[in-house]
Amino acid sequence: MKRSRIVGTGSYVPSRVVDNQEVAAPLGLDPDQIVALTGIRTRHWVEQGQASSDLAVVAGQRACEAAGMTPQSVDAILVSTTSPDSAFPSTACHVQRALGVNPVMAFDLSASCSGFLYGVSMADVMIRSGQVRSCLVIAAEVKSRSLDARDRETALLFGDGAGAVLVVQEDSAQPDAPGILGVRLHADGSGHGLITIPAGGSRKPVGVDTVRASEHMLRMQGRAVFRSAVRRLEQAMIDLLKEFGLAAGDVTRVIAHQANARILEQLRRRLGLSPEAVYSVIEQYGNTSSASLPIALDQAVRTQRLAAGDLVLLGAFGGGLTWATGLVRW
């Protein structure tokens, strides 16, 4: 039976480290307040001239190296981003060119912070159907360029970075064989205004008036997002586990979108998990949108927090509104 398996992970963050002192000053906050509110101490921001594809290329290379494969051997490249290099061509095409990959399918997808799991789901379906045998899924975000330094809802949260996984086809009839067991995707467009960049698209092109109004900057209704994220993601995780006849206690590790340390803690408590079960890197990297989950996954792999046979529960929530869950046998 065909199944898909993650055989390599990779990540990359820019070298520039931005501490809480730097982001706190324009907000009139004490740096320790940011830690208390978010769990974040540092985040990484790009330098002038760096773009999402630059981060994606390095993360993709590292995922391929970890798998013992070359980028030239992949059958497809998917890039999740809400901060593409340009409206078109796709960031994935820039990544394909930079990696020297043959003319295979390469495209972007946009599902905000849930985009990585949306991409993994697409890779899983294409592999199970026999359309491709391998797929490089990358999430790359440069959020620092859309931040209003005076906006307390967003300025203290976001960082830049990229994470990647290489997903390949394997054949196994064993129910406990390693691989992606399932990914479930959700969306509710009625919450579109909770996380958004108002201007810059075809409905409201960027112009003098929109720039003056800072409508090209990221806006978020933090409290409403917090409540919705915890409620919807908890239920989606429970539903996915039930679908596979499992309970939260069967899970070895939970790796979720690194939005806010308080969201992760609420999920842990509601699911009845130990503190060690929920893996977090938000203290060092902040919220890197769709890249946060694969960055955390890669860090978990490289610090040996995952072992063969572990049952890993994945989850993400973001603008749209979108949310997604995944279950992986490592």
Task: Write structural notes for this entry.
The protein is α/β, with parallel strands linked by helices. Helices cover 32% and strands 26% of the residues. It has helices at 20-24, 31-38, 52-67, 91-99, 115-128, 208-212, 222-243, 261-271, 282-285, 292-302; strands at 2-12, 16-19, 42-45, 76-80, 105-109, 134-142, 160-171, 179-187, 195-196, 219-220, 253-256, 278-279, 311-318, 322-329. Strands 1-7-6-4-5 form a 5-stranded mixed beta sheet, with helices on both faces. Helix 3 crosses helix 4 and helix 7 (222-243) packs parallel to helix 8 (261-271). The longest helix has 22 residues, at 222-243. Its main location: cytoplasm.
Order of helices and strands: EEHHEHEHEHEEEEHEHEHEHHEE
Strand order of the largest sheet: 1-7-6-4-5
**Helix count?**
10
| Low-pLDDT sequence parts | none
Strand-residue fraction? 25-35%
Let me know the largest β-sheet: 5 strands, mixed
- Label the structural class: alpha/beta
CATH topological fold name of the largest domain: Peroxisomal Thiolase, Chain A, domain 1
Any guess at the CATH architecture of the largest domain? 3-Layer(aba) Sandwich
Give the % helix: 25-40%
Shape: globular
Overall mean pLDDT: 96
Name of the level-1 CATH class of the largest domain: Alpha Beta
Strand runs, count: 14
Termini gap: 18 Å
CA gyration radius, whole angstroms = 19 Å
Catalytic activity: malonyl-[ACP] + acetyl-CoA + H(+) = 3-oxobutanoyl-[ACP] + CO2 + CoA
Family: Belongs to the thiolase-like superfamily. FabH family.
Organism: Nitrospira defluvii
Enzyme class: transferase
